[in-house]
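User: Please predict the structure of the protein below. I'd like the answer in structure-token form so I can feed it into my own downstream comparison script.

Assistant: Understood. Taking the following sequence of 111 residues as input:
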Amino acid sequence: MEEYLIDRSTLEGIVDGVMSTMDLSGVSDDRKAALRESGIKKLDHNLALAVVCQLDDSQLSEYEEMLNDNTLSEEDFANFFANNDIDVQEVMKKEIMNFKDEFTAEVHDEQ
């Protein structure tokens, strides 16, 4: 089972929304499904990377320790980012906009 930074249904909704704006009329259903799945994985990766890139070395070390602690909750992670003045929602919003442009260009170039 794969783990995602945000829940899979949210990722699916974002990717589906982006794909709905594309002209995919000449693309097979199998290819659309593959594009959707790769988009979900890419978006999750990009979101995680964008958030982690906001951390300095000290914060990154602390974050890595937190990831290894299976007793921590989502609230603990939210508090960590808030206490370090990182607006995760804003970082994610910007990355989603970047993803939309990049994914659309990639799919267009592939056709």
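That's the full token string. Residues 29-52 form the longest helix (24 residues).
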